[in-house]
């Protein structure tokens, strides 16, 4: 009889302790979760899931799955049964790349954390993705979910030199609508994207998330350099046009937000180092490089017209003067050769691609050296950057 009483007490204590440790409330509620997944808009067929989380943001094991239903990135998951208000959304699929003006060739995964008691309209985007690890870290240290979200968003905005005043929660932002918050989201989206392939964008997002997890500060100068290189080489006017036309083809009347001001603000204020300069090596496969900024004096002979262009850059050089020529048949040089301008004895060479461009050039004074230099005008990324005077001795 004593043994039975002892076992009964132990079992009762076990039930009491188990109830005290259970973080989940007994009440189960039904809700709908809907919104948009955007880098540019994710396309029809993208997989999306909603996972229930405890108040410590650990999975309960309950998950609901669906797919995006159109090319606007729209999803709507109905009648979800939740015992906790905290959820993690995960979207994995192809998206419209607003920089390249085309659908991505590979799939990208983005996340969002949200409290469904605050809103059931939850958008998934690069801000919601970047803040995920930071929010989890802050909550694990005792901060409540709402405060953790606000702090993480503020820290992420500061990476892009954007203040958080007047900007709503990340999961409420929409790149297809006007407003400062939406403009900030689009600015960050295009800065992160740049001309990176999907694999490198995915790696960049993951590395930034890991870097800022514990202190909210982007400490990696390499990651920061990638951001400023992207920001300074993308074409903002083309991005605006690409998005406007994309939404128009989807039958939507949208206003692309004023994202350009935030991209320019980032360029002007960031301390990250820009390194995506066009290079002009001293030599090429045909000899000394006529574009080498350190050399001005040459003799009769064969030379290279060589430049190395990083992703997102373009180059145009105008050569004016006499005593220079080139072989007519050259393959895979990377240069588009313009027509000869008799009026000012000039010809324009324009880059056709990025990477290493090399063209064979020849200098010959025909026994009568010119007292006037050959002038080379440089236009990098459509802006005139310098003039080189080339002397034939």
Please tell me about this protein's structure:
This protein is of the alpha+beta class and 393 residues long. It folds into 2 domains: 29-269, no CATH class; 283-392, Immunoglobulin-like (Sandwich), CATH 2.60.40. The protein contains 8 helices and 19 strands. The strands form 6 sheets. It has a 6-stranded mixed beta sheet with strand order 11-19-18-13-16-15, with no helix packed on it. Helix 2 packs parallel to helix 5. The longest helix is centred in the N-terminal third of the chain and has 20 residues, at 2-21. Residues 1-25 have low confidence and may be disordered.
Please tag this protein with its features.
393 residues, Immunoglobulin-like, alpha+beta, 8 helices, 2 domains, four-stranded antiparallel sheet, 19 strands, six-stranded mixed sheet
